[in-house]
Amino acid sequence: MKRRTFIKNAGITGGMMMISPLSGKLQPSDSYDFPLIDLHVHLTNTFTIDQAMDLAEKRKVKFGIVEHPAVWAIKNDADLKKHIEKLRKYPVFIGLQPMTTGWDKNFSPEMLAKLDYVLMDPQTVPDGKGDYLRIWNFDTYVENTEEFMERYMEHCLNVLNKEPINIFGWPLFLPVCIARDYYTLWTEKRMQQIITAAKARKIAIEINDMSHTPHDKFILMAKEQGLKFTFGSDSRNSNAGRLDYSKAVAKKCGLKKEDFYIPGTKL
């Protein structure tokens, strides 16, 4: 099954609001001190590049288009070349969103260098038995919370320490079944481990509009330590570029233009 194709936007938003009480208090504004760029937009048969461009113009937001390197999407250099050439005629950034570690072995360094950026999240978590927990699924079951968090943290750090990426997506996301313990599970120690690893390799942190993560405490910690941020809607429809949570929490945390990573610039 393609990732998240089964998720209805209304349902996922309702499931994730519980982990971000800020979302009900923040009011977006029409004036911002930072660029409006959504680097986490997917195209589909029903959401085409032309529709995305119309929406970008309407919302005054620049888009970054990502696709998954996978057997059902981009498998090799030839597929990646077609993906890049198709999009280069449009005013968008072009990226990949890998789902599992080791994804880059199917591509040459020369072809990967033609991308504007690579965004990866840690939601496909190895279960230790040769399979994966796909923690965005509503029916993800966590039997032992602390054991899961240890495995999840190990996976997060593997992504940050080893994968050739520019952006760490969906930071601090938790499965719905344990999301009520968000503030207890995301201890300062765990958050600092993620920040330290991202800083060491100059990886930007996505402020994800779909999941409403991360929260302001993490953003302020990361900002103080010099990390950069991006916005991402993870949209496949007209939600692209809306970014209500992302803009509001960024403004609340005092983020400025210099706090954001823009593909093609130094982190």
Helicity, in percent? 25-40%
- Strand percentage: 5-15%
- Rough shape? globular
Radius of gyration, CA atoms, in whole angstroms? 17 Å
Please state the average pLDDT score. 90
Short description:
The protein is of the alpha/beta class and 267 residues long. It has helices spanning 9-16, 49-59, 77-87, 109-112, 145-162, 182-185, 188-200, 216-224, 244-252; strands at 37-41, 62-67, 93-96, 117-120, 124-126, 132-134, 167-168, 204-208, 229-232. It has one domain (37-259): Alpha-Beta Barrel (TIM Barrel).
Secondary-structure map:
Layout: H1 9-16, E1 37-41, H2 49-59, E2 62-67, H3 77-87, E3 93-96, H4 109-112, E4 117-120, E5 124-126, E6 132-134, H5 145-162, E7 167-168, H6 182-185, H7 188-200, E8 204-208, H8 216-224, E9 229-232, H9 244-252
Parallel strand pairs: 1-2, 2-3, 3-4, 4-7, 7-8, 8-9
Antiparallel strand pairs: 5-6
Helix pairs in contact: 5-7
Give structural notes.
- The protein is α/β, with parallel strands linked by helices and 267 residues long.
- The chain has one domain: Alpha-Beta Barrel (TIM Barrel), CATH 3.20.20.140.
- It is 33% helix and 13% strand.
- It has nine helices and nine strands.
- The strands form two sheets. Strands 1-2-3-4-7-8-9 form a seven-stranded parallel beta sheet. Strands 5-6 form a two-stranded antiparallel sheet.
- Helix 5 runs parallel beside helix 7.
- The longest helix is centred in the middle third of the chain and has 18 residues.
- The two termini are 35 Å apart.
